[in-house]
Amino acid sequence: MRGIVRSLLVSLWFVFLTFPLLVIKVVPNTGEVIWRWKNAAGIGIGIFFLSFIWRALLVKRGLIPQEEAGIGRLMQYLSTPMNKQRVVVACLLICGWGPLLYTIMGSGWSLDRGLAPPLQDGAFTPLQWAVFVARALATFWQEILAALLSFAAVQHAKGNGARMMAILRRPTQPGPARNITIILLFLCLLPLPYLMKIYQINVLIQTFIWVMLGLGLNIVVGQAGLLVLGYVAFYAVGAYTYALGNALLGGAHIGFWFFLPLGGLFAALAGILLSLPVLRLRGDYLAIVTLGFGEIVRLILESGSLSLLPFVGLLPEHVIHSLPTWMKTPLNFGGPAGIGGIPPPGFFGMRMELDDNLRYVYYIALAMTVFTIIAVSRLRDSRLGRSWMALREDEIACEAMGVDKIKAKLTAFALGACWAGFGGALFAAQTSYINPTSFTFMQSALILSVVVLGGLGSILGVALGACILILLPEYLRAFNEYRMLIFGISMVLMMVFRPQGLIMPKRKRRVIAGMDAVPPASAGGFEA
Amino acid sequence: MPSPGFAMSTFFAEIDWRYLGELFFSGLTKGSIYALISLGYTMVYGIIELINFAHGEIYMIGAFTGLVMAGVLGSLGFPAVGILILGAVAAVVYCSAYGYTMEKIAYRPLRGAQRLSPLISAIGVSIFLQNYVLIAQSGEFLRYPNLIPDMPFLQPISYMLRPSSFLIIVTSAVVMVILTLFIKYTRLGKAMRATAQNRKMAMLLGIDADRIISATFVIGSALAAIGGILIASHTQQINFNIGFLAGIKAFTAAVLGGIGSIPGAMLGGLVLGCCESFASGYISCDYEDMFAFAILILILIFRPSGLLGKPKSMKV
Q1: Torsion of CA A50, A53, A54, A56, to 10 degrees
Q2: Is B56 in contact with B248 (CB distance < 8 Å)?
Q3: Are residues B127 and A488, on separate chains, in Cβ contact within 8 Å?
Q4: Closest residue of chain A to B290, computed from CA coordinates
Q5: Cβ contacts of A32 on chain B, cutoff 8 Å
Q6: A-contacting residues of B 50-79, CB under 8 Å?
Q7: Other CB atoms within 10 A of residue A497 CB
Q8: Which stretches does DSSP call E strand in A90-209?
Q9: pLDDT tens digits, one per residue of A331-389
Q10: Where are the domains of chain B?
Q11: Residue A13: pLDDT above 90?
Q12: How far is CA A355 from the centre of its chain?
């Protein structure tokens, strides 16, 4: 009873809160006022039920005591596995299978999605069938995901949860199970560009780039503990290196393979350039300086050009004459319109169709991602990586142990930025057109979310986080205008209910016999 | 191109005082708004060390609430001044409610979590609120009615001080004085300062820290709401993403003045506004935003604790 009263009050509060914006709407030109009472009713009813779930979850996390939540009856109902199973399955049926039923009934079944087999050829060869089935599976992956989720939920409710989690956890532990999983996953990724549509391939390439970005930022934030909020600037440096280099040296037939390492190098240089003045700043001050740096880079790109003329102009006349022309011509960034006509990567001068080129970019992105994962995990276990972690845990203690703080910070910035540069060059090659809107602060915030969502410092977690953050909005496209709304909510929920991220980084700990009393170190702690 | 034999006296003689005054007052106007918003940042940061990225959205919601109220009251035939005052009251009430709810849902459960979690949560709230307004209202730039009455006594300097600028400067000055007195002399204000200084000790002395934190969010949001409604009646158009840049700039102002320091936030806001205005007037308006960030970086490098902040020593 108490719980019902509480939920009623909460729902009334939200009706009040959303009243002016959600219920009233003033038509801009005529000044006519529209009252949308339906919305108030929807919010009231929705919040009434959601507040029960919210409190139940808070109780489960141990954030509020059960008596205070007023949901004793509900918890009692859920305490038997049978009832729990009923509720979970009902929820999943509504959430997961709803869209599928909608798709089937809404005539969107096969014709809309381009899945109808080409019947004019007559009979199907087995290969055609295989491609057809695989393509169908790829298209309906969200429904498959829903099915897997409901299966998992049923198992969880049946009490097999612990056993299932053990099976799921096995691939993340070092050992043969993990190696087999990785190889299988890699093999699954190989044929995808031949099974999917152009749009989906683009999304996948984007995901790979984001995995690289996330892993790069993870070096700086997760491993070295330096909070950077302007990471997208390095990404922009990589992308513009390729775009500008191509525009300036276009005639020389220097392609992607030259600019890819160059983009990484320039980004690393930018990282060093940024880190030099901020070496002694810590925590939030570092964060805000990097934020400012990111904004400055974006504003330079938006303002269109950067020239040495104001400085050159201060020199005496005869010196100006003797200067080379490049010092006197402004460097053109294309302004808000951006730079187009960036060539796709070449393959020994082979001419490729548009589709094939995209597939080629896909394989490059895949290879780069694999390379990044290997390199980053090797770095983590190296002497340098360990010094980063020492720096993160305690700067003063780390210095006292003889770690060169300056070197550790510089390398963290340079190596972290380097991956963003690679990612940027790849991005420019994929889209063949770049403009400053791809390099806003929001992007920096999203990359940081990838790292934190996945679990600070954990490589697998960051990769998973990138997949979720890129694929979730795509998956939510069915909800169209609501997708960013849901994305924002899920970020908050994720932090409230699993603040340590999806996967907690495991640190190697050596236990000395007889020291059992030492409390375990908190994993992935971030203190600035 | 300035010649090398550049004399200081000619420089002063060449100053266009009218133009300078215009730039100064436009800087002061902008700076007052930044100061109002940055107070919310600095107060929240002082107490729970959280960069509340969603604070800019509260300012935007304040402007939208004002717009909706103006529409409703206008159709009922209220006079302009009444609309302005009632709209401001509604904006303050609703923004305080939003601030309170936001803290309760997105930040309170994260108390004691690792440091980055509330920051990510704040980014999530920011994305959510932007899209909420986008869906609930509109994605277009909306025209805000002109509600500010003519002020005849401003006639002689009307070229550099519009009535709306005058209102902004006066209102923010009054609000800031009230806030300072409130923080200094009231019971709640003293409790806030105590909590900011040492939360654990304050709790031991019987201060309910959760209540104080809620109060901080409510006060900060109310100030942002005043800023929102003032800027909306100044620029006369609003959009669902005006909060983002204003939020970042205000945060910059808070850091500039020394984050955690209330007079610092006011000073930082005014300095930032004036710097921006002069830079865009004398150098190039393309570089207006860039200049703000460049100043920020320079100050942080040479005086990391900000203009009025106290330097913190490192402790083992």
Answers
A1: 160
A2: yes
A3: yes
A4: A296
A5: 75
A6: 51, 53, 61, 64-65, 67-72, 74-75
A7: 13
A8: none
A9: 777 777 778 878 777 766 666 677 788 888 899 999 999 999 999 989 988 999 999 98
A10: 37-244
A11: yes
A12: 26
How are the residues of chain B apportioned to helix, strand and coil, as percentages rounded to the nearest 5?
75, 0, 25
Can you tell me the distance from the alpha carbon of B111 to that of B95, in angstroms, rounded to the nearest whole number? 22
What are the beta bridge partners of residue B237? B143
Q: Which residue has the tokens 């996945």?
A: A454
d(CA A392, CA A397): 10
Which residue, among A340, A297, A318, A295, has the nearest Cα to A442 in the 3D structure? A295
Distance from the A190 Cα atom to the nearest Cα atom in chain B, whole angstroms: 34
Positive or negative, the CA dihedral B223, B226, B229, B231 is negative
In this structure, chain B runs to a length of 316
- The pTM score is 0.78
Alpha carbon distance A510, A363 (integer Å):
40
Give every CB contact of residue B314 below 8 A, 6+ residues apart in sequence.
A395, A396
> Is the pLDDT reported for residue A120 higher than 50?
no
- Sequence letter at residue A448: L
Which residue in this structure is represented by tokens 């009434």? A48
A305 closest CA partner among A189, A436, A398, A180: A436
Exposure letters B245-255 (e unless 16+ CB within 10 A, then b):
ebbbbbbbbbb
| pLDDT tens digit sequence for B37-85 | 999 989 998 888 888 889 999 999 999 999 898 888 888 888 888 888 8
Q: Do B86 and A44 contact (CB within 8 A), yes or no?
A: no
